[in-house]
Amino acid sequence: MEYNPFHNGHLHHLQEAGKKTGADLTVAVMSGPFLQRGEPALVDKWTRAETALKAGIDVVIELPYVFAVQPADRFADGAVSMLEACGVTDICFGSENGEIKPFQDAAESIEQHGQQIDQQVTAHLSAGKSFPRAYNEAVTEAFQGSIGLDTSKPNNILGLEYVKAIRRRKNVIQAHTIKRIGSSFHDQDPSSAAIASATALRKIIFDKHQPFTNVRPYVPDISFQLLHQKKENLTDWEAYFPFLKYNLMTAETEELANIYDCSEGLEHRFKKNIHQTKTFRQFIDAVKAKRYTRTKLQRLAVHTLNRVNKSDITGWSPGKPAPYIRLLGMNTAGQAHLSAMKKTMSMPLITKASAGKHPWFDLDLKASHIADFVQSSDSLKEYQKKPIIID
Amino acid sequence: MEYNPFHNGHLHHLQEAGKKTGADLTVAVMSGPFLQRGEPALVDKWTRAETALKAGIDVVIELPYVFAVQPADRFADGAVSMLEACGVTDICFGSENGEIKPFQDAAESIEQHGQQIDQQVTAHLSAGKSFPRAYNEAVTEAFQGSIGLDTSKPNNILGLEYVKAIRRRKNVIQAHTIKRIGSSFHDQDPSSAAIASATALRKIIFDKHQPFTNVRPYVPDISFQLLHQKKENLTDWEAYFPFLKYNLMTAETEELANIYDCSEGLEHRFKKNIHQTKTFRQFIDAVKAKRYTRTKLQRLAVHTLNRVNKSDITGWSPGKPAPYIRLLGMNTAGQAHLSAMKKTMSMPLITKASAGKHPWFDLDLKASHIADFVQSSDSLKEYQKKPIIID
């Protein structure tokens, strides 16, 4: 989850998930300060975790940077491995249709026709198609259109990857899906209904011509209260852009070529376009070309901002579990569950920043330092924070 | 010169220099956006050049970064080589006493006792003394106190280096000195007299409790007008500090160790102290130790901000001339002089940024881009600027 911000759709999902699984405990894996689509979070991760806990989730853990700012396969694989380590038995994700069978069918077929699909994706990419389109066409071709799942929709892509990741782990976890309600993921124009996408809500928040209170109908009260408390610290890419620009202005092209996920000479495109652009939006518009998705460019911008190099992110392969679990918060039920789990947990549970020893955790720390510095000029916060505990 | 800002003391110096030399033309070599003591200039170099021209100087050229953000020997050596290339016959510098003979005597004796002085400086530095103090004691010891020049005073240090640089060039240029008037260089409390140091004036400008007009008595009218026009863009280190902090937060220690002039593990001191400091002043106070002068640390901070590596500044030795001259502005007399000189000039005269091909010029450009970005969010300015021409 990203909870950026936590809205009524998230609450609906949580309630439906409870009904569907009869779960007595809920664990959420949440991205840290930088998100899957290559954007910084609106508000710090501690506030987002607190909101989730107060909305009824029992344990919130942080998805490491190495999985969070990544395509769906890696994002889902990391998250599932951490949920498994926490003893989770059921995973619920949102989808357009709310039916699990097409996901299971698609996952099974991809396992069978994987090589054919890979070849077709490569062919479509060479023909200049974007990855989502190339993938959807390749999958459709392989199944001859019989699968009943549009894999070009972001939520379906992610759901499919959850199911694939679960299957890789020998099905010890059961997958469920819940139909998303209200406006679609890409919709930017919230109606008067109480459901608006996170994208639409961020648009309201950063629109100088709209009062902040316009988000109120679309988010639970607790979310509104906490967002309101942090009103002066809410950030989008534009708050980070001066630092990205400074970095691109001062870095050598060879340094940029070393940034994780930098390929095909994008370091030159980035450097060439930085001087003439004054906003992040202008910058991405300037570097955008048909062969790169906006998300790919935004993720590269996040890695560049954080100066994450290729050598910092190595050693991942599908199915390889996350190497640690960073705990952000829990309620008393969550605390009891973790205490019981702790002895047999397959990953170290990190409860304070200074205890994290894995090199990937250093990336989480660096990303949090930068976000805290930009959001609140307090780059030391990460060292002072303890997991949130609520009754 | 640094003209940071151009004040009545500069005007006095200019007038006295005219009387002393009978010069029909004046050339000023001025630092670009970053200054000798490791500070950013208050206002952009074009505004400072324009002020100097309107105050009566005929030609203003830019001292390259490679010479400007350096100890006095290198600063003076670069400046003298450029003045020589411009056909200058007399150089005037300010000093505490206004007598040239002690400078000539000191320079001659240093040539004779150089090795002994170097050894003594090393010994004093090992004993934990700061460089200015070590140098002054070593020089005093070599001359047995008879020289009549306090070489721990910044202006005397610089004057001595001008004289040494001129002697290295076989005395084709004649050295003069003019007694500085009013408060001393380090004084930070301007009296009611019309003379105040540049340091004192910057203190007024960045003091929120003083009106900007308080600087008016101490600067020529034209200087006040131009400063006033740029009122919203005047910057000290604090405006640059967020970028220095971001850089120190994201750079690896090994990258910092590669920064020009980084030695004795200062990369660790810089990195260790950055999180807990919220202002540049706090930062320098935190890293300061007896063995490092504040100026040395500030210069390292400038190189870190500009990401200038050791490999970017190589190949200088005393007496080696600057490789190019960047023209910032001229009046018609200056223009006539340069036209006449141009054919025989020993260095290329750069009149637009895109024409500069030397790797050192790339550093000038990068430094200007950063300063323009921080001062006016316009990092492209340097490519658009042509030399200022006034009647």
TrEMBL record, chains A, B:
Residue ranges the record marks as coiled coil: none
Positions with a binding annotation for ATP: 94, 155, 180-181
Molecular-function annotations in GO: ATP binding; ligase activity, forming carbon-nitrogen bonds; tRNA binding
Tree of life domain: Bacteria
Catalytic reaction list: cytidine(34) in elongator tRNA(Met) + acetate + ATP = N(4)-acetylcytidine(34) in elongator tRNA(Met) + AMP + diphosphate
Cellular component, GO annotation: cytoplasm
Any Pfam family: HIGH_NTase1
Main subcellular location: cytoplasm
Record's keyword terms, sorted: ATP-binding, Cytoplasm, Ligase, Nucleotide-binding, RNA-binding, tRNA processing, tRNA-binding
GO biological process entries: tRNA modification
Protein's cellular compartments: Cytoplasm
InterPro entries in the cross-refs: Rossmann-like_a/b/a_fold (IPR014729), tRNA(Met)_cyd_acetate_ligase (IPR008513)
E.C. no: 6.3.4.-
Protein function: Catalyzes the formation of N(4)-acetylcytidine (ac(4)C) at the wobble position of elongator tRNA(Met), using acetate and ATP as substrates. First activates an acetate ion to form acetyladenylate (Ac-AMP) and then transfers the acetyl group to tRNA to form ac(4)C34.
Family: Belongs to the TmcAL family.
Protein's recorded name: tRNA(Met) cytidine acetate ligase
Provenance organism: Salisediminibacterium halotolerans
Lineage: Bacteria, Bacillati, Bacillota, Bacilli, Bacillales
